[in-house]
Amino acid sequence: MELSLEETLASLKTTERDDRIPLLMHLCVLKGYEPLEECQSLLAEAVELGEIYENHAYCANALVALANVHYLRNDIEMALEKVRKAVRVSEGGPDIYAIANAHQACGTLLFVNKQYEESQDSLFQAMQVLKNQGLDEWLGPIYNTIALNKRELHLYEEAIDWFLKGIEIAESKGNMESAAIAYHNMADCTKDPAKIKAFLDKSFAYSSKAEDQRMLSATFDKYITYFHSVGDLESMIQMSKQALEEAEKGQSPRRLAACHLSCCRALLIYMDTQYPSIDADMLKQAGQHYQKLDDFGDLGEEAHVSRAKPLIQARLALFQSDYTSAIDYGNAYLNREVKEEEVALDMHRILSNSYEALGDLQAALDYNKQYTQLFIELEKKRSSKEIEELYEQYQTRERQDQIKRLQELEELKTRFFSQITHELRTPLTLILGPAQLIQNTKDSKQQISQANIIERNAQRLLDLVNQLLDVSKIEAGMMSVQKSRVSLSRFIDNVIKSFQGLARQRQIQLDLILETEELILLLDTDKLNKILYNLLSNAFKFTEEQGRVICQVSTKHKETESQATLEIQVSDNGRGISPEAISHVFDRYYQEDKGTFTTETKGTGIGLNLSKELCELMQGELSVESALGKGSSFRLVLPVDLAQDEQLDTISEVQAIPVNSLIDEEQPGPLTTDQSSMEQRKDIPVILFIEDTKDLHRYVKSIFKDQYILLQAFDGIRGLEIARERLPDLIISDVMMPGKDGFEVCAAIKEDELTNHIPVILLTGKTALQSRITGFEKGADAYLAKPFSAQELELQSKNLLATSKALRAYLSAGDEAGLGKEHLNKTLVKIQSSYLDKMRSFIESHLEDDNFSIAMITRAFNMSRSQLYRKIHSLTGLSIVEFIRKIRIKKAIELLQTREYSVSEVAYKVGCSASYFSRLFVKHVGQSPSSFLSNNS
Fold it and tell me: In this predicted model, what pLDDT tens digit does every residue of 547-568 receive, in sequence order?
């Protein structure tokens, strides 16, 4: 016998289990939370049980349900207290549904309490919890409540956008009720009659499909208001009657009372426009609807009849020519202590019309004046309200814009510090790693090479730290201008000379054009030096080999004045700056998001900003002109003081900032390999290293020297090309790179059937757990954080190559050789076994084909001959010819064991001549085909 819900609860009353909690909540839902006192008691018990059994999810959900009861009892403060507790409780457990439900309930109640911005915060938290778990289909109600918040904040366009998001989810789930509610609410987000009608039509269509009587009734109400606002009174009457017909299908007395009220008011409004030519039939209908309202009694009062009743009574009396009753009703209402201004306005008009009909023109005139005065006051209030609403909307949008600007700044800062972390970790790797290698080697040439890497990257770190210190000094207002006497030509010449080594190395023409006489100036040479260093190094970064960088210097001054204007222009014919980025080049933390920028060219986003601020500190201006593909030109205009005669005895000699960190004294090796002598040996593993820092290439090359063949790529796109061309045994890739980052490279490698067997090690300065998780989600086999040690990289590489070798042995011999796969990656074994099975199946199906060739395989599997060789060798350790022979022999053994074919027939079926087949069989099986048949008889 099946127990009822109450009986099930009773049976669990004495047991020490938390099963009772969901039953208690379900019982309250079935009761429709009626009566409230009983449901409150049941849910309080559920909360207590949740706390006893430390079931966070059940406890939080019970608290949300209990909050709903308090809300129904109009105790909003207690309801909010319960949902806030639900949020705290839910976050103590792992149930994401409970967490999202608590935040959503909190957001909804805060909305009801008109705490719109706090409501949005809670709703966004609920949304994020669900999004993080990929549960977007649960977001519809949250989107709708966010939209309602936006509407109340007068952000109507944003509200419509959020409603549409909710509708999209509702439609995908077939939730017609939710879509109807959203469209219904969207009608309040616009004043455009056409849009209002379109939204109401949509709401009506979805309500009809869902057979949702409550929503249909609400939509009818809005239709009536809409038709009234556009002056279509006939449609208003028709819609009122249609609403009543729909309400009569349901069981709600309250709804019927509301519909009779709508019909009565619609008829009266229509007759009001025709007064005094009253339609007798309409008047009769209005009276009948009014009588129905009286029949509902208290329910009618709940349907707001008490508010509308005096005006209806007065209008009916006026239209029935019962002017005395109309006057009595009107005065009775106006003598009330509490009255509505809109109703009072109509009462003045009814009184004026009634007195006019009775011949008391003075009284009619007095009430008409009062009507006019009240009308003007109401219009002023409406206008004032509209102005206040517009002002509030403006303030809200201002707050939203400010929040958006702060969010953008935070995003820039986050990007900046992420980049700085990478900037710091890369040179640290190149200082610590080579230092360890120097300690472990006696090769003087190798020591010098590693020492050069250390010096360059230490200088790079120093430059970065100095820039950060300068930025902090400027922000703190602690940087001042310190002038000294200096020869302009000598100073500029020193700066240019410091870049000549870099120009030679990069094969870039560096020109200095001095368009000024010899002048001794009072300058803050330290700041000007830093500005020129940033401008020139920036020009070299973005200019290709064989390009040109020009530094043009001129001055303007009058002999009678002690001041001059110094103008310095640094131009290049490099890649240029995009139109979108040019207005941001001097913004701190800004980095143009260009896929072709390397770590060495992308920078940190502070150099140009620092230059601009140093320039402004010296009362100067720094501007830029640029065009993509044509180059950039930075123009510095600076007011300077001319040194007086008595100051010429002590001229400062200024040294330019060294550019050691930019000059790469050792030319990088070729992009593919500089180990050509090892290429001929097929037993040496091939490693592809993808990284955009040249010094890291040298460092890794020194680690793997004489152990592996090292292929090199300086960006993700080229790295993928080499991976597909050469099919290396291992790929080591940085994460932050141009073209494609390391995560994209790893994902592409693992998704491509040609390369998915290759293990991948990711290197990065991003050490956060989420970054590591992302790396492993993309299929990375290992993840090393910078700075990493040479020994760690060696061991990881060695272990992955050993695993690949074990996989190769298993796939080649498998269970035939008694090799187990317990220690191997089961997913990888399955993927590669499947690939080899497809390859074997294709080859077996063509063994009898006289035209069968390796070219047929390459066409079928869409790869080159060399790719086919490397793929098969990577997976089995065999050449493609050996792989085909092995398939022939295996197939031959299967056919011989059936004893259905002679030896010559078997030879033909596996694509061999009889004599060649015998030799091949003996070589692989150790006995002739005939002997094999005899021994297995």
Answer: 999 999 998 877 667 788 899 9
